[in-house]
Amino acid sequence: MKTLTHDETFESRDMFSKAESFLQRGNHDRALEYLGEALKINPNHPDYLSFKGLCISLAGDTIEGEKMCRRAVSLDSKSPTVFVNLGKVLLEQGLRNEARKMFTKAYKIDNTNAPAALELSRMGVRRHSVLPFLDRSHPFNKSLGKLRALLLTRKDPGLKKL
């Protein structure tokens, strides 16, 4: 079990542990209940806020979830956990570039952070722009990059050198 921080109580930590357990099993509603109880005891705890934001986002309200996660980041910008949770919320919204930045920040804070490394590996490695003299967001680079990805996923071994 993790040690208590200076602003935690045994009761709030217990509520948070139960919430984490329910979240891992996919029961977001129960996790939200326990996180709500933990936040009643300790309303400005960054981990509790970021996990509640993640639960809210997974329940469908990604905007509110993002607000809560960003508040957690503002309270503790040295915690990789809050950045990972914010990244997951941003992924829920389809904001892959922003999510990648959050996972990278978490990994830079703690390069042994397994959730950050896992999320970065799930997103895959970004290839260099097809046309390096243009910005990667340029429509030509986007279109050619999608074409390259499509060609690389084909079974023909002659195309793997692109």
CATH superfamily of the largest domain: Tetratricopeptide repeat domain
Query: Which structural class do you get from the secondary structure elements?
Result: mainly alpha
> What is the CATH class designation of the largest domain?
Mainly Alpha
The CATH architecture of the largest domain comes to Alpha Horseshoe
Q: How many helical elements?
A: 8
In short:
By secondary structure, the chain is mainly alpha-helical.
Structure description:
The chain is mostly helical and 162 residues long. It folds into two domains: 10-126, Tetratricopeptide repeat domain (Serine Threonine Protein Phosphatase 5, Tetratricopeptide repeat), CATH 1.25.40; 128-162. It is 67% helix and 0% strand. It has eight helices and no strands. The protein has helices spanning 10-24, 28-41, 46-58, 62-75, 80-92, 96-109, 114-123, 139-153. Helix 2 (28-41) packs antiparallel against helix 3 and helix 4 (62-75) runs antiparallel to helix 5 (80-92). The mean pLDDT is 87.
Give the topology.
Blueprint: H1 10-24, H2 28-41, H3 46-58, H4 62-75, H5 80-92, H6 96-109, H7 114-123, H8 139-153
Helix pairs in contact: 1-2, 2-3, 3-4, 3-5, 4-5, 5-6, 6-7
Keywords:
elongated; 162 residues
